[in-house]
Structures are given as structure tokens and as C-alpha cells.
């Protein structure tokens, strides 16, 4: 800044006012200062600015998974796309970091907060008695939970009504005559998995629904599907909690000579473009994940702006019926 002041012929204070958009300098001087700053390659040091109480203009997101697993996970990429779109409109950036445990995630949040790297964080994949929640409450760092199950003191929350989704899935399969259904779920310790399981059990009157836990990866879903299709009696329908797992299950059925949907119907709880490109195309629950991410970002930015955190229910998904489901065999 001293170099800029010397080149322009003004005080260092005037340069500071010009670069930080503060009153006290003319528009012509402000423009000249910015031109010289660009020529000299000057950039504002965000941590230093943050130490003086200014916004960092950044939001943090930690994901407890490997970058390799993330590369095939359409849901997360669409979610992040929506978050980034909303942040960009406000001039905010997104800091993304992969972690291996809740303890590491909490440590990242504390470091970001101590160094004033972010103005708030997005919290995904909430667990029962999740230690991240009290840690963030103690820090006072603005946060939004994506996929929580109700109001969380001090944190914003965007959630989906699993009961409505379960009613659509179970009701549709029941209308096709399915009475033996297996659901390949996400990790059982996740709150939204537990809420989904409870909702399916309530909706499945007169049906036998078996839950097989997996981890959203194709490998785990493939192993589960081989066990399911090798057992007796075989279910007439399999519901997968994600598109990636449903696609893996569809591939295993083909390998084993099990016809879809003649022998077994397959339904995915999440949609992606690949679900329409495979044969047969997968019946899915469809929701706009990009918009879901954008809504989460808006709730977080409200907290960053000093407003009270809100708990908001997202629009219920719709059922998109395609070729992978049919009346129950036999």
C-alpha cells in the first residue's frame, strides 16, 4: 500500500480508503488507486482484513469421504453446485476440505474460526448425538445443517419430509402388488437414514420390508444386491437410498440373469442423469438438488448477516416412474 501511495502521490490512508470502498476520497482518485494496485499485483489479504472485523466472504464445507468417492457422487456435486451458485451471487467463495472423522472436522471448524477463514459452515450427514453440533454452538460460528430432522438451537436447518417421500415410494410399490420389498439404505447412524427407515416402517402396512445397510458406494451396494438376489424368498422390489447404489444393483441383477423389472423392480430414492440413460431407465424420487444447495446457502447467509437461524422444510420430491418398475412377479 505504501508503494501505491508513492506512485499515486497520496497518503497511505487515502489508499486504504480507496481500496476498501470507504468514503473520503474522490471517484477519480479511487479509480487511479485501483489501476495502480492492479499494475503492481496488489491483493487484499483476507485474514488481515478479517482481524479488523470485516467479513471473510467465504463459507466452509467439510466432507467425511475420500475425493475418489466424491468424484462419482452426483448428489454431492449437485449440492455443491447449488451452494456455489448462491454464494457467487453474493461475492462469497467456498472452502472445501475432505476429512476422515468427526474429530478432524471439528478441528477444521475451530481452525477456520480462529484464523477467520470463513464466515460460516455447511454441515452435512448429521448423526445421532453428533459432536459437531455442540462444538459449533460453543464456537458461535454460523452454520446450516443440510438434511437435519428438526429445529437445532443456534443452527439453521434445511430438511426433507421423509414421511411424505416414504409414502410415495411404499404406496407406489403397493399399488403394483409388491409385498416383499428390500431397502438398501445409507449408513444406519445417519439421522436422515434413521428417519427414512422409521417412515418406511410406518407406511408399509401389509408389506414385509427388510433393510440392508450400505454406505452409498457402488461396491457396498453391489455386495448387498448379490446377497439379496441369492437369498430366498427373493424380494419382488428393491429400493436403494441413492442413485449410485441403484445403478450398481441394476448391474448386478444383469450379471446374475435377474430380469428388471420382470423378476424384480428397482427404485432409487435419488435421481441423476445416469438414471435415465441406463437400460431399463430407473424409477426414482426426483428433487432439484442444485436448488436444494442454493436454499441451504441462503439460510446460512441469513445467519452470517445476523438474522436468527431458521429450520425450513424443503419441497417434497416427486416420483418419476420409468422402466425399472412393474407389477410384482407371480
Q: What quaternary form is this?
A: single chain
Instruction: Return the string of H and E elements.
Output: HHHHEHHEHEHEEHEHEHEHEHEHEE
Principal-axis shape equals elongated
Q: List the domain count as a whole number.
A: 3
Gyration radius, rounded:
25 Å
The chain-level structural class is alpha/beta
Number of helices: 14
Please, what is the average pLDDT?
90
Low-confidence residue ranges: none
**Number of strand segments:** 12
Helical content stands at 40-55%
What distance lies between the first and last C-alpha atoms, to the nearest angstrom?
80 Å
The CATH architecture name of the largest domain reads 3-Layer(aba) Sandwich
The level-1 CATH class of the largest domain: Alpha Beta
The CATH topology name of the largest domain reads Rossmann fold
The name of the CATH superfamily of the largest domain reads: Response regulator
Largest sheet: 6 strands, parallel
Strand order of the largest sheet: 2-1-3-4-5-11
Portion of residues in beta strands equals 15-25%
Amino acid at each position: 500500500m505504501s508503494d501505491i501511495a508513492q506512485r499515486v502521490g497520496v497518503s497511505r490512508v487515502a489508499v486504504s480508503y480507496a481500496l476498501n470502498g470507504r468514503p473520503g476520497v474522490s471517484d477519480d482518485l479511487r479509480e487511479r488507486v485501483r489501476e495502480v494496485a492492479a499494475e503492481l499485483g496488489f491483493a487484499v489479504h483476507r485474514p488481515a482484513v478479517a482481524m479488523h472485523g470485516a467479513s471473510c466472504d467465504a463459507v466452509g464445507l467439510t466432507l467425511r469421504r475420500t475425493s475418489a468417492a466424491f468424484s462419482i457422487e452426483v448428489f454431492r456435486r449437485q449440492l455443491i453446485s447449488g451452494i456455489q451458485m448462491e454464494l457467487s451471487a453474493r461475492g462469497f467463495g467456498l472452502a472445501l476440505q475432505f476429512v476422515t472423522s468427526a474429530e478432524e472436522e471439528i478441528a477444521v471448524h475451530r481452525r477456520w474460526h480462529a484464523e477467520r477463514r470463513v464466515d460460516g459452515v455447511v454441515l452435512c450427514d448429521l448423526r445421532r448425538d453428533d459432536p459437531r453440533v455442540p462444538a459449533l454452538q460453543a464456537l458461535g460460528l454460523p452454520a446450516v445443517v443440510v438434511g437435519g430432522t428438526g429445529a437445532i438451537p443456534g443452527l439453521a436447518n434445511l430438511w426433507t419430509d421423509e414421511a411424505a417421500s416414504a409414502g410415495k415410494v411404499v404406496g407406489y410399490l403397493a399399488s403394483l402388488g409388491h409385498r416383499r420389498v428390500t431397502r438398501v439404505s445409507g449408513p444406519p447412524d445417519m439421522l436422515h437414514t434413521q428417519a427414512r427407515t422409521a417412515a418406511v416402517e410406518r407406511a408399509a402396512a401389509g408389506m414385509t420390508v427388510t433393510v440392508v445397510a450400505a454406505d452409498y458406494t457402488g461396491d457396498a451396494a453391489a455386495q448387498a444386491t448379490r446377497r439379496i438376489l441369492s437369498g430366498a424368498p427373493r424380494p419382488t422390489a428393491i429400493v436403494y437410498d441413492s442413485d449410485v447404489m441403484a445403478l450398481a444393483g441394476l448391474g448386478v441383477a444383469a450379471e446374475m440373469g435377474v430380469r428388471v423389472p420382470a423378476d424384480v423392480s428397482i427404485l432409487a430414492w435419488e435421481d441423476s442423469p445416469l438414471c435415465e440413460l441406463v437400460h431399463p431407465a430407473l424409477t426414482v424420487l426426483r428433487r432439484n438438488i442444485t436448488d436444494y444447495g442454493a436454499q441451504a446457502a441462503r439460510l446460512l447467509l441469513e445467519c452470517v448477516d445476523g438474522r436468527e437461524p431458521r429450520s425450513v422444510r424443503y419441497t417434497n420430491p416427486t416420483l418419476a416412474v420409468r422402466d425399472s418398475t412393474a407389477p410384482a412377479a407371480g
